[in-house]
Amino acid sequence: MQAGHSPGERVGLATHVHSGMESSLQSRDVAGVHDFVLLENYGSEDAFINNLQKRFNTDIIYTYIGPVLVSVNPYKNIPIYTDDVIKTYRNIHYFEAIPHIYAVTNTAYQALKEENKDQCILISGESGAGKTEASKKILQCIAVTTGRTNQVESVKEKLLQSTPLLEAFGNAKTTRNDNSSRFGKYMDIIFNYIGDTIGGSLLNYLLEKSRVVMQAPGERNFHIFYQLLSSSDASLLDSLHLSPNTYYHYLNTSIVSMKDNEIDDIGQFRVVKRAMDVIELSEQEQTAIFTLVASILHLGNVGFSQDENGNASINAPETIATVAKLLACDAAQLTHALEKKTIIARGDSVTTPLNKELAMYARDALAKAIYDRMFTWLVQRLNSSLRPVDDEFNRTKVMGILDIYGFEIFGKNSFEQFCINYCNEKLQQLFIELTLKSEQEEYFREGIEWVPVQYFDNKVICDLIEERHKGIISLLDEECLRPGDTSDMGFLNKMSINLVDHKHFVSYSKAERTMLKQIPRDEFQLVHYAGKVTYSVHGFVDKNNDLLFRNLIEVMASTKNTITKAVFTEKELESKKRPETAASQFKKSLNKLMQILVTKDPSYVRCIKPNNEQTSGIFDEQLVRHQVQYLGLMENLRVRRAGFAYRRTYDVFLKRYKSLCPGTWPNFNGDPKDGVALLTQHLQYNKYEFSMGKTKIFIRYPKTLFMTEDLFQLKKNDLATLIQRKYKTHAARKNFLKMRWAAIVMQKYIRRFLAKRAMRRRRLAVEVLRRLLKGFITRDGEPTEDNMAFIQLSRINYLNRLAGNLPKSLVDRDWPACPKACRDVSIVLHKLYRGQQARIYRKNLSPEKKRQFDLKILAEKLFQHKKKSYTSTHLTPFENVRLPSELHQHKTQYETNQLVPGEKLMYCTNITKYDRHGYSPRDRALLVTNKAIHIVDIKGFKVKHKLSLESITELVVTAEMDGLLLIRIPLELKKDKGDLILQCAHVIECVTFIVDAVKKPNILKIASTSMISHNIIGGKEGQIEVTAGSELGFGKGKTGHLVVTVN
Ligand SMILES: Nc1ncnc2c1ncn2[C@@H]1O[C@H](COP(=O)(O)OP(=O)(O)O)[C@@H](O)[C@H]1O
Ligand SMILES: [Mg+2]
């Protein structure tokens, strides 16, 4: 097959599985071959069936016809459905492991993921063949295979739980199958781009709603009724006014009593409740559903009686009250709607009573409508729960699973079976279209050498049923829409007339004599692809009309139940158009389904039922052969054997495998066909292995493709490395550029920062330098901010220098030069220092020295700038004894002998005394005591004069450099004969001592005149004349004066 199975594109060789396959080949005598393609006698139906049987007998239920999976219902549990098995199949190629539904699923899933193509798995087979079970296995496989995140888990759980929920409401026990699907189901599993399940979407097809009100013998109503009644939840049943012991008309029309040993209703109810929770049906929604189920049971128990006018009336008003209560509508209104019928004719509404039969019909129609619409509501509710999150919508892929009611033949077949079988015709048609027909047509189109395989094309039957204007559905609609009394027989007649020549239609009027017995007058027979089915024409018109009286719709629209309120609307009543008939609707929905399916890559599971007893171990050869025939499996095999396992357009093939040949890699610019030719040459394809069509290459055996794919997978590693390398380089370079850029930016900032900092520093430095220079230049100026530092520094330096260079002695008047700024300080310091030095000097002075100084100071006071000799003498220390040494003894003696007590000698010197008359010189010694002045004879130290200190009035000296000393004494002191005229070598010293002793400094007079008079005793006066001369001299001048010559 081209579609769906392009196995070679997904090879993952696992050698251990190979050996598994080989061993299964070895054991084929017992277990048969796993792929019918390997059958030696592939044209023989017997061999085919024999192979199936061998496998069935060894509990191998799956066999391939190439990519098509044939499954035989084992009617017993075989241990091949564990999660481990699923995991094994996950990594194995389809053709490499023994056939399994998981292999089909996994192959489709991988194709979805890798080729990004929507998939669908079509499961066909008659009722009870195992379709629903197969669909569950597929779901299970997907659930185990796909992602494990919370969100995915929750979606998968919902998907899985949707099955038991829908089965409870849509499946029932039939004579064919205890769990027969009474509705068609198409489920899309929605995957995101990485292959995780992210949602789902369901389509439901024609529920067999007639079952709600009536079941054939041996069959049951839908499971949910029994499940609800078996519920152990007493309060639930109470609230619904239900009891397991009550007789329910809608259940007991069947001879099967409520309890069925085979079916675990109690357990199933729990499963259903859980499923409802998982699907996130609210408590309120769940109650609404159970209320509707209960309402239908109660409604079934509403009986009618008929009065003599033929007007129906309800028997048990309390039952209708219960129904009204449950649905939350007005009981009277409901009663009215069940007993009467309102028709709007040309704008007027006309109400007419119903007879019993019509009332019952109305009641049943209502029950069916409620159940049918509730079922559809439930599917929609499931869809809203399974809807994927919006943002993932664009890149999603889906895998559809079609599990629809299978072809079925009952003892009595009605409209429903007609629809179901029509549906199966359509699916068979699709199968033929996509496998047998299109494949062969393709070989022809592509110019491949081909011997056509004959097969039965059921298109003729499809046309018989659905052709516009001519088909059965059109005829049925015609009868239904016809004015006047329409009837089932009218419909049958129409068919008998119109379809008289059709090979696949037989009716009583057309039947051969031999068949007359088989076809009663009110029946017709269709020769379906899967067999002849005789349909009873009864109910066709009604069921096709599917009418619900408008008052009933009105009542339903007025109910408070969430579901009925939503599914019956006033709007429906307003619509003037006649609703489409059931068959037309179904036809439309089927055609839509076909359109959905053809857009996807299909995979096929063909289910076969081994017996009609629903028991394991029985292989009814006749039954199986029939199915093999109508399913077209032999033709399928023949096409498969003669055909090619794989085909692809040249461009696609080249695109995938071009990397395997240097001539086509990396690009082949010519015609893709030439490219492929080059490729096959390079790969050394055997000429039997493939064929070149007009637009496609056809490869006969999967193994050729496996080999190519293996090479590709290996090459992929190289390519991946190459891509990785390129990418890594690119990524690394990108990263590098990014880093470089970042570094540059960083550098920029850092540089700016550093530059700014340097600039700040330089500016600061300049400022500092400028200040420094300015400070330096102005360092001798007034203190400013700028020169302050210099000043400070020069002060410090000065002080340091000063400290090291302080004058050592007081006499040293030197003082280190100072900067201008320190001048004041220097002066102060100098003064302070000298003061300090002087203090120290003073402190260290001996009394003698001190005395010396006191005298010197006194001398200074007395003489400085006054007497010329002062400057030449002031540095000579004073001595208190200025006597030649030979006189010292005299002096001592004198001291001891002549001085009065308390009298102390202060000074003594030798002097020259001049007489007051003749001025003749006499050598004398002068002694100064603290009381008097003694003038003694120098020879013997005899006292000549003794003058008390108080008696001295004046001391006179000249301003010149002479040694004259005139001591004025009061005239009264006659004894002394006038003032004393002395010449003293150390006149300054002498006067100082005397003044010191007298303690009257102003006693001294320094005469500035050249004439000094002196008293002579007797009131006379002498004159002393001071004249300049070359040499110092004393002597009596011609004037009679004492002349003192000074230079
Ligand atoms: N693979 C299987 N393994 C075991 N039993 C199966 C298998 N397939 C089907 N059955 C049995 O057959 C019954 C009918 O199968 P089902 O799938 O409901 O048929 P269909 O949907 O085709 O009408 C199931 O209830 C189950 O008991
Ligand atoms: Mg089923």
Element layout with pairings:
Elements: H1 15-26, H2 28-31, H3 45-57, E1 62-65, E2 68-72, H4 83-90, H5 101-115, E3 119-124, H6 131-145, H7 150-170, E4 171-172, E5 180-181, E6 184-191, E7 197-205, H8 210-213, H9 223-230, H10 234-239, H11 249-252, H12 265-278, H13 283-300, E8 304-306, E9 312-314, H14 317-327, H15 331-339, E10 340-345, E11 348-353, H16 356-386, E12 397-403, H17 415-445, H18 459-466, H19 472-481, H20 488-498, E13 505-507, E14 523-528, E15 531-536, H21 540-545, H22 550-557, H23 562-567, H24 570-574, H25 582-598, E16 601-608, H26 621-630, H27 633-642, E17 646-649, H28 650-657, H29 672-682, E18 690-692, E19 696-699, H30 702-777, H31 785-804, H32 823-844, H33 847-863, H34 870-873, E20 881-882, H35 888-898, E21 905-914, E22 921-929, E23 932-937, E24 943-948, E25 954-958, E26 964-968, E27 980-984, H36 987-998, E28 1004-1007, E29 1011-1016, E30 1020-1028, E31 1033-1036, E32 1042-1046
Parallel strand pairs: 2-16, 3-12, 3-16, 20-21, 25-28, 30-32
Antiparallel strand pairs: 1-2, 4-5, 6-7, 6-12, 8-9, 10-11, 13-14, 14-15, 17-19, 18-19, 21-22, 21-27, 22-23, 23-24, 25-26, 26-27, 29-30, 31-32
Helix pairs in contact: 3-26, 4-6, 5-6, 6-7, 7-9, 7-12, 7-16, 9-12, 13-14, 13-16, 15-22, 17-18, 17-25, 19-20, 28-29, 30-31, 33-36
The protein binds adenosine-5'-diphosphate (ADP) and magnesium ion.
What class do helices, strands and sheet pairing give? Answer: alpha+beta
Global Rg: 74 Å
Question: Stretches where pLDDT falls below 50 for ≥5 residues?
Answer: 1-28
State mean pLDDT (0 to 100 scale).
Answer: 86
Note the gap between the termini.
Answer: 165 Å
Ligand list:
adenosine-5'-diphosphate, magnesium ion
Cα shape = rod-shaped
Helix count equals 36
Report the count of strand segments. Answer: 32
Beta-strand content: 15-25%
Work out the helicity level: 40-55%
Largest sheet: 9 strands, mixed
GO molecular function: actin filament binding; ATP binding; microfilament motor activity; phosphatidylinositol-4,5-bisphosphate binding
Family: Belongs to the TRAFAC class myosin-kinesin ATPase superfamily. Myosin family.
Binding site for ATP: 125-132
Membrane topology: Peripheral membrane protein
